[in-house]
Write a structure and sequence with these properties.
Blueprint: H1 2-23, H2 28-37, E1 51-55, E2 71-75, H3 76-85, H4 94-107, H5 110-113, H6 120-128
Helix pairs in contact: 3-4, 4-6
The structure holds zinc ion.
């Protein structure tokens, strides 16, 4: 009976973990290795805050998708721009990339969103392409 009381807590922790994996994919160990390799800074700008481990190729069929060699450190903003600029070229389907771009855009605060291309233009591209 006592175990039952803990079930909701275990479930929510698992759900949160799965959510994190769905969004990120890299394990904690892999993320640590990427951070170490990249010197705990963005490989693009050298920024040291608001960093994320971002995939280079997002193709789910790639067996090395979540390996150290397929990741690099970017700021949230750079990660957003990477998904935006490599739309249709980063291994994600149009719809999956759109969802990711939308999620990243929401994660950025208002100040950080200043001057970023809006994700809706990606959807317009999708509609235009039939
Ligand atoms: Zn990404």
């Amino acid at each position: 009976m006592k175990e039952k009381e803990y079930k909701p807590i275990i479930f929510s922790a698992t759900a949160l973990g799965l959510l994190a994996i769905a969004f990120c994919g890299f394990s904690r160990t892999i993320r640590r290795k990427i951070k170490e390799r990249d010197g705990n800074k963005s490989v693009l700008s050298g920024a040291t805050t608001r960093l994320q481990c971002a995939h280079i190729n997002h193709d789910k069929n790639n067996p090395k998708i979540n390996s150290v060699s397929n990741g690099r450190q970017l700021t949230y903003r750079e990660h957003y721009l990477d998904h935006y600029n490599r739309h249709k070229k980063n291994g994600l389907s149009v719809q999956d990339n759109y969802s990711t771009v939308k999620g990243l855009y929401c994660m950025l605060n208002k100040r950080e969103r200043q001057g970023l291309p809006h994700y809706d233009t990606l959807l317009e591209t999708k509609k235009g392409k039939k």
